[in-house]
Design goal:
InterPro entries: ARM-type_fold (IPR016024), DNA_alkylation (IPR014825). The protein contains 17 helices and no strands. By secondary structure, it is mainly alpha-helical.
Length: 249
Protein backbone atom coordinates (compact mmCIF):
# COMPACT_ATOMS: atom_id res chain seq x y z
CA UNK A 1 0.00 0.00 0.00
CA UNK A 2 2.91 2.38 0.65
CA UNK A 3 4.03 2.19 -2.98
CA UNK A 4 0.51 2.81 -4.23
CA UNK A 5 0.04 5.64 -1.73
CA UNK A 6 3.25 7.40 -2.74
CA UNK A 7 2.43 7.07 -6.44
CA UNK A 8 -1.04 8.49 -5.77
CA UNK A 9 0.40 11.42 -3.81
CA UNK A 10 2.93 12.13 -6.54
CA UNK A 11 0.21 12.07 -9.18
CA UNK A 12 -1.58 14.84 -7.27
CA UNK A 13 1.39 17.08 -8.14
CA UNK A 14 1.72 15.86 -11.73
CA UNK A 15 2.04 18.38 -14.52
CA UNK A 16 1.88 17.26 -18.17
CA UNK A 17 4.31 19.98 -19.25
CA UNK A 18 6.84 18.88 -16.64
CA UNK A 19 6.29 15.25 -17.62
CA UNK A 20 7.32 16.05 -21.18
CA UNK A 21 10.23 18.20 -19.96
CA UNK A 22 11.51 15.49 -17.60
CA UNK A 23 11.37 12.84 -20.31
CA UNK A 24 13.51 15.06 -22.54
CA UNK A 25 15.83 16.40 -19.82
CA UNK A 26 16.68 12.93 -18.49
CA UNK A 27 17.24 11.51 -21.97
CA UNK A 28 14.60 8.79 -22.08
CA UNK A 29 14.28 8.72 -25.87
CA UNK A 30 15.27 5.89 -28.16
CA UNK A 31 19.01 5.32 -28.10
CA UNK A 32 19.55 7.70 -25.16
CA UNK A 33 21.06 6.72 -21.82
CA UNK A 34 17.70 6.46 -20.03
CA UNK A 35 15.76 4.96 -22.91
CA UNK A 36 12.29 3.86 -21.88
CA UNK A 37 12.20 5.58 -18.49
CA UNK A 38 8.74 6.84 -17.55
CA UNK A 39 7.79 10.04 -15.73
CA UNK A 40 4.87 11.19 -13.61
CA UNK A 41 5.68 14.87 -14.19
CA UNK A 42 6.60 15.99 -10.66
CA UNK A 43 9.27 18.48 -9.54
CA UNK A 44 11.98 17.51 -7.05
CA UNK A 45 10.58 19.82 -4.31
CA UNK A 46 7.19 18.15 -4.69
CA UNK A 47 8.77 14.69 -4.49
CA UNK A 48 10.37 15.80 -1.21
CA UNK A 49 6.98 16.98 0.07
CA UNK A 50 5.55 13.52 -0.51
CA UNK A 51 8.57 11.79 1.02
CA UNK A 52 8.20 13.86 4.21
CA UNK A 53 5.10 11.81 5.03
CA UNK A 54 6.85 8.45 4.56
CA UNK A 55 10.16 8.70 6.40
CA UNK A 56 9.73 5.37 8.20
CA UNK A 57 8.95 3.30 5.12
CA UNK A 58 10.32 -0.24 5.46
CA UNK A 59 13.10 -1.56 3.24
CA UNK A 60 10.56 -3.97 1.78
CA UNK A 61 8.39 -1.07 0.62
CA UNK A 62 11.41 0.94 -0.53
CA UNK A 63 12.26 -2.07 -2.67
CA UNK A 64 8.82 -1.69 -4.25
CA UNK A 65 9.45 2.00 -4.90
CA UNK A 66 12.79 1.26 -6.54
CA UNK A 67 11.18 -1.31 -8.82
CA UNK A 68 8.74 1.28 -10.16
CA UNK A 69 8.91 2.16 -13.87
CA UNK A 70 8.36 5.80 -12.87
CA UNK A 71 11.45 7.90 -12.32
CA UNK A 72 9.95 10.09 -9.59
CA UNK A 73 8.77 7.06 -7.61
CA UNK A 74 12.29 5.64 -7.64
CA UNK A 75 13.58 9.08 -6.64
CA UNK A 76 11.15 9.06 -3.70
CA UNK A 77 12.55 5.70 -2.62
CA UNK A 78 16.08 7.09 -2.86
CA UNK A 79 15.19 10.16 -0.79
CA UNK A 80 13.61 7.98 1.91
CA UNK A 81 16.68 5.73 2.04
CA UNK A 82 19.05 8.72 2.29
CA UNK A 83 16.91 10.19 5.04
CA UNK A 84 17.08 6.96 7.01
CA UNK A 85 20.87 6.82 6.67
CA UNK A 86 21.20 10.44 7.78
CA UNK A 87 18.88 9.81 10.73
CA UNK A 88 21.38 7.31 12.18
CA UNK A 89 23.91 10.16 12.48
CA UNK A 90 21.69 12.40 14.59
CA UNK A 91 22.05 12.82 18.33
CA UNK A 92 18.41 11.89 18.90
CA UNK A 93 19.08 8.50 17.29
CA UNK A 94 22.15 7.80 19.44
CA UNK A 95 20.14 8.39 22.58
CA UNK A 96 17.85 5.47 21.79
CA UNK A 97 20.16 3.14 19.87
CA UNK A 98 23.45 1.53 20.84
CA UNK A 99 26.54 1.97 18.64
CA UNK A 100 26.12 -1.65 17.55
CA UNK A 101 22.49 -1.08 16.53
CA UNK A 102 23.46 2.07 14.68
CA UNK A 103 26.20 0.35 12.73
CA UNK A 104 23.93 -2.56 11.87
CA UNK A 105 21.25 -0.21 10.54
CA UNK A 106 23.79 1.67 8.46
CA UNK A 107 25.17 -1.59 7.06
CA UNK A 108 21.70 -2.78 6.07
CA UNK A 109 20.94 0.47 4.25
CA UNK A 110 24.32 0.43 2.49
CA UNK A 111 23.98 -3.19 1.37
CA UNK A 112 20.36 -2.65 0.33
CA UNK A 113 21.45 0.28 -1.85
CA UNK A 114 24.24 -1.66 -3.53
CA UNK A 115 21.82 -4.51 -4.20
CA UNK A 116 19.55 -2.05 -6.03
CA UNK A 117 21.99 -0.16 -8.24
CA UNK A 118 20.01 -1.31 -11.29
CA UNK A 119 17.26 1.03 -10.06
CA UNK A 120 19.64 3.93 -9.36
CA UNK A 121 19.75 4.43 -13.07
CA UNK A 122 20.11 8.10 -13.86
CA UNK A 123 22.55 10.82 -12.86
CA UNK A 124 20.11 12.58 -10.49
CA UNK A 125 19.38 9.34 -8.65
CA UNK A 126 23.10 8.69 -8.23
CA UNK A 127 23.98 12.24 -7.23
CA UNK A 128 21.15 12.39 -4.68
CA UNK A 129 22.35 9.30 -2.88
CA UNK A 130 25.85 7.96 -3.51
CA UNK A 131 27.80 10.22 -1.17
CA UNK A 132 25.14 10.06 1.56
CA UNK A 133 24.87 6.28 1.59
CA UNK A 134 27.94 4.64 0.06
CA UNK A 135 30.43 7.41 0.77
CA UNK A 136 29.11 8.00 4.28
CA UNK A 137 29.21 4.31 5.17
CA UNK A 138 32.71 3.72 3.79
CA UNK A 139 34.23 6.86 5.32
CA UNK A 140 35.80 4.84 8.15
CA UNK A 141 36.11 1.55 6.26
CA UNK A 142 37.99 -0.15 3.45
CA UNK A 143 37.12 1.65 0.19
CA UNK A 144 37.69 -1.40 -2.02
CA UNK A 145 33.96 -1.64 -2.92
CA UNK A 146 34.31 1.68 -4.73
CA UNK A 147 37.07 0.29 -6.92
CA UNK A 148 34.89 -2.69 -7.79
CA UNK A 149 32.14 -0.26 -8.81
CA UNK A 150 34.60 1.82 -10.81
CA UNK A 151 35.58 -1.28 -12.80
CA UNK A 152 31.95 -2.25 -13.38
CA UNK A 153 30.53 -2.23 -16.90
CA UNK A 154 27.49 -0.39 -15.57
CA UNK A 155 27.57 3.37 -16.22
CA UNK A 156 25.62 4.21 -13.05
CA UNK A 157 27.77 2.03 -10.79
CA UNK A 158 30.82 3.79 -12.18
CA UNK A 159 29.24 7.17 -11.43
CA UNK A 160 28.37 5.95 -7.93
CA UNK A 161 32.04 5.08 -7.42
CA UNK A 162 33.36 8.56 -8.17
CA UNK A 163 30.52 10.60 -6.64
CA UNK A 164 30.73 8.60 -3.39
CA UNK A 165 34.21 10.01 -2.84
CA UNK A 166 32.63 13.41 -2.21
CA UNK A 167 31.99 12.20 1.34
CA UNK A 168 35.74 11.70 1.79
CA UNK A 169 36.60 15.00 0.12
CA UNK A 170 34.45 16.82 2.66
CA UNK A 171 36.71 15.38 5.35
CA UNK A 172 39.86 16.47 3.53
CA UNK A 173 40.58 12.97 2.18
CA UNK A 174 41.16 13.16 -1.58
CA UNK A 175 43.30 10.09 -2.34
CA UNK A 176 40.44 7.87 -3.51
CA UNK A 177 39.04 10.62 -5.72
CA UNK A 178 42.30 10.85 -7.65
CA UNK A 179 42.70 7.07 -7.79
CA UNK A 180 39.18 6.45 -9.12
CA UNK A 181 39.48 9.39 -11.50
CA UNK A 182 42.53 7.65 -12.95
CA UNK A 183 40.52 4.46 -13.48
CA UNK A 184 37.75 6.38 -15.27
CA UNK A 185 40.07 8.72 -17.16
CA UNK A 186 39.37 7.22 -20.60
CA UNK A 187 35.70 6.41 -20.06
CA UNK A 188 33.69 7.02 -23.25
CA UNK A 189 30.58 8.57 -21.67
CA UNK A 190 30.07 12.28 -21.08
CA UNK A 191 28.20 11.63 -17.82
CA UNK A 192 31.35 10.10 -16.36
CA UNK A 193 33.49 12.93 -17.72
CA UNK A 194 31.26 15.43 -15.92
CA UNK A 195 31.19 13.48 -12.65
CA UNK A 196 34.95 12.95 -12.57
CA UNK A 197 35.64 16.59 -13.43
CA UNK A 198 33.20 17.69 -10.73
CA UNK A 199 34.89 15.55 -8.07
CA UNK A 200 38.35 16.69 -9.15
CA UNK A 201 37.20 20.30 -8.85
CA UNK A 202 35.88 19.66 -5.35
CA UNK A 203 39.06 17.83 -4.36
CA UNK A 204 41.10 20.75 -5.62
CA UNK A 205 39.26 23.17 -3.35
CA UNK A 206 40.75 21.33 -0.38
CA UNK A 207 43.89 19.91 -1.93
CA UNK A 208 45.22 22.21 -4.64
CA UNK A 209 48.61 20.50 -4.65
CA UNK A 210 46.97 17.13 -5.22
CA UNK A 211 44.85 18.42 -8.08
CA UNK A 212 47.83 20.15 -9.66
CA UNK A 213 49.85 16.94 -9.48
CA UNK A 214 46.98 14.99 -11.07
CA UNK A 215 46.58 17.55 -13.85
CA UNK A 216 50.30 17.67 -14.52
CA UNK A 217 50.14 13.92 -15.13
CA UNK A 218 46.85 13.64 -17.00
CA UNK A 219 45.62 16.96 -18.43
CA UNK A 220 46.90 16.19 -21.91
CA UNK A 221 44.86 12.97 -22.13
CA UNK A 222 41.73 13.96 -20.20
CA UNK A 223 38.44 14.31 -22.09
CA UNK A 224 37.79 18.00 -22.69
CA UNK A 225 34.62 18.14 -20.56
CA UNK A 226 36.31 16.40 -17.65
CA UNK A 227 39.25 18.79 -17.82
CA UNK A 228 37.08 21.91 -18.06
CA UNK A 229 35.03 20.89 -15.02
CA UNK A 230 38.18 20.16 -12.99
CA UNK A 231 39.67 23.58 -13.80
CA UNK A 232 36.67 25.73 -12.88
CA UNK A 233 38.07 26.97 -9.55
CA UNK A 234 41.65 27.50 -10.69
CA UNK A 235 43.13 30.80 -11.76
CA UNK A 236 42.75 31.97 -15.34
CA UNK A 237 46.45 31.40 -15.97
CA UNK A 238 46.32 27.81 -14.72
CA UNK A 239 43.17 27.07 -16.71
CA UNK A 240 44.86 28.38 -19.83
CA UNK A 241 48.01 26.37 -19.12
CA UNK A 242 46.20 23.05 -18.74
CA UNK A 243 43.88 23.62 -21.69
CA UNK A 244 46.97 24.24 -23.84
CA UNK A 245 48.38 20.89 -22.70
CA UNK A 246 45.12 19.26 -23.79
CA UNK A 247 45.19 20.96 -27.17
CA UNK A 248 48.72 19.83 -27.88
CA UNK A 249 47.90 16.15 -27.32
Amino acid sequence: MTVESILSELEAYANPVRKEHNASFFKSGKGEYAEGDQFVGVSVPDVRKVVANHKDTSLEDIDGLLQSPFHEVRLAGIFILVGQMEQTEKRSWSKTHSPEETEETRRKIYEFYLNHTSSVNNWDLVDSSALYIVGSYLSDKDRQPLYQLAHSKNLWEQRIAIVSTYAFIRNGDTADTYAIASILLHHPHDLIHKAVGWMLREAGKRDLAGLTFFLDQHAAEMPRTMLRYSLEKLSADKRKHYMKLRQKS
